[in-house]
Amino acid sequence: MDENMLCTKTHEYVLEKDGNYEVGITDYAIQQLGDIVFVELPEVDSEFSKGEVFATIESVKAASEIYMPISGKVIEVNEEIVNSPELLNDESYDNKWFIKIESEGNQIEFADLLEYSDYKEEVE
Amino acid sequence: MTKQTFLHDRHVELGARMVDFAGWEMPVQYTSIIEEHKTVRENVGIFDVSHMGELIVSGEDSLAFLNKLVPQNISKLVDKKAVYCQLTNKQGGLIDDLIIYKLEDKKYLIIVNASRADEDLNWMTRNQAGFNVDIDNISHKYSLIAVQGPKACDLIMSIGENYLPPFFSIKRSELFNINLWMSRTGYTGEDGVELMVKNEYAEYLWDKLLEAGKQYGIKPIGLGARDTLRLEAGLHLYGNDLDENTTPVEAGLTWSVPKDKEDNYNGKDVIMSQIQHGGRKKLFGFKMLDKSVARHEYEVYINGEKAGVVTSGGVSPTRAENIGLAYISLPYVDKIHVGSTIQIMIREKLHDAEIVKLPFVTKRNKV
Q1: Is the Cβ–Cβ distance between B309 and B332 less than 8 Å?
Q2: pTM (2 decimals)?
Q3: N or C: which end of chain A has fewer CB within 10 A?
Q4: ipTM value greater than 0.90
């Protein structure tokens, strides 16, 4: 995991990259979910507010909704994990982001996000 | 206050994730549900199922008493044989599904679901008047360990068992110098045994089985894989697929109900009438036609109309597709058959599924 990522208490992360943002779920969340068998991602150009559900994933046990850590517009989705959800459980696979978004990066929206190290402490 | 089995510490040591199940703290998975599932289909797995209830019904009238409680003909049960039964209410609805073993004349062992043990005892007590029987709940004295998979019997034979009980039979046996009851039953669709042992020997037996099972690729299996295994085998889960408003006929259990039983039992009139004319709903198996997963309580649609409900749904690791069981209500029952397309409402979108025959995976336990 990239140490610069910011995490929600509901286990999503956001990471700034080249002026845009990458959004996904934390390694801890993946480990807790177990075998992931289904990933549903939004369409490119759809817009979401912070806290809105933008994706759903299914593990063998249950479905989980994934929330936007900050507001933004989807510019790219990770089709690889849609086609092969089991890649999320593969420790040798690094490309685990869900979507890339364009965001105004409103600082108020970052206020309740945790630095990765603090997040780790919180969940462990 | 959740209860713990006598193997609780072992599960924690083995790294299991523990969850609450029917008031018991149980391992849901040790490593990965899919991996554990495959272990049982390909090699052998060991399960702690000590949360299940064990009752002994004995006494002069025990046979007549049991014949009043279940549609099955207990009179035909010979010593050491078992029969899959349902505990029915006066409307033919299912209070529980259970296995009755005849240990000897006038003495029966009944294995019941953890979630229903109290209800079962309550119902049996209410039906007890006029019968000279003792109902002894021995659940707190015994642990139950299931050993399941194509190599389960090889493992049991390798540790000194010379004569495995035949399918759906039980015998008194001894493994590692521990006295136990060994039955050729399970909830996975695979061959294997279930071992009922006094609590104080449970850890020792568990450790010994894991050690002896190494050469067969044994792994501990949690409730997560137990659920995917039973679903593939088309076996019902009480609370999902069976409840007090569902009869054995509606649940697709007519095969287990004798048509010629003379004794009157609770719900007999309803069940016999439904065998003739059909029930109010019928259970079907389906597979999803896309990657989505159907879950318990999702709605089923046929031609845009709500036609039923999913009672169990999930992943089939063996078939590498997503499967489920659904009740289709009466007006639609005759319109669907194997190959029909139905739709499942998943997060406000309809997804196509196809009716398939049950079980989803061929059982390999009939020997």
Answers
A1: no
A2: 0.94
A3: C
A4: no
Mutation for B interface: A37, A83, A87, A91, most B CBs within 10 A: A37
Chain A contact set for B291 (CB, 8 A): 37-38, 85
CATH number at residue A97: 2.40.50.100
Q: Give the number of domains in chain A.
A: 1
Is the bond leading into A42 cis (omega within 30 degrees of zero)? no
Of B32, B224, B291, the CB nearest to A38: B291
> pLDDT, tens digit, for every residue of A27-71?
999 999 999 999 999 999 999 999 999 999 999 989 999 999 999
Contact A37 B293 (CB under 8 A): yes
Q: Does A17 touch chain B (CB under 8 A)?
A: no
> Which residue reads 């609590």 in tokens?
B199
Q: Which residues of A touch B347 (CB under 8 A)?
A: 40, 56, 63
Q: CA nearest B82: which of B58, B111, B59?
A: B111
The tens digit of pLDDT for each residue in B1-32 reads: 799 999 999 999 999 999 999 999 999 999 99
A91 located within any domain: yes
Asked if B347's CB is within 8 angstroms of A37's CB, the reply is no
Distance from CA of B28 to the nearest CA of A (A): 9
The interface residues of chain A toward chain B in range 57-76, judged by CB-CB distance below 8 A, are: 58, 60-63
Strand segments (E) across B66-208: 82-88, 94-104, 107-112, 134-137, 142-148, 170-175, 178-183, 192-198
- State residue A12 phi and psi, 5-degree precision: -90, 160
What is the domain range of residue A27?
A: 6-123
Query: In this structure, what token pair is assigned to residue A54?
Result: 């933008």
User: What is the Cα–Cα distance from B80 to B100, expressed in whole angstroms?
Assistant: 10
What DSSP letter does each residue of B237-288 carry, written as one string?
Answer: -BTTTB-TT--TTTTT-GGGS-S---S--TTHHHHHHHHHH--SEEEEEEEE
For each of the domains in chain B, give its residue range(s) and CATH number, in order of start.
Answer: 3-50+140-232 (3.30.1360.120), 280-367 (2.40.30.110)
Which residue from B minimizes the CA distance to A55? B347
* A103's tokens: 């965001």
How far apart are alpha carbons B43 and B226 in whole angstroms? 15
**Does residue A50 lie within any of the structural domains?**
yes
| Pairing assessment for the beta strands B53-58 and B107-112 based on DSSP bridges | antiparallel
Of A34, A40, A56, Cβ closest to residue B32? A34
Count CB-CB contacts under 10 A for residue B303.
10
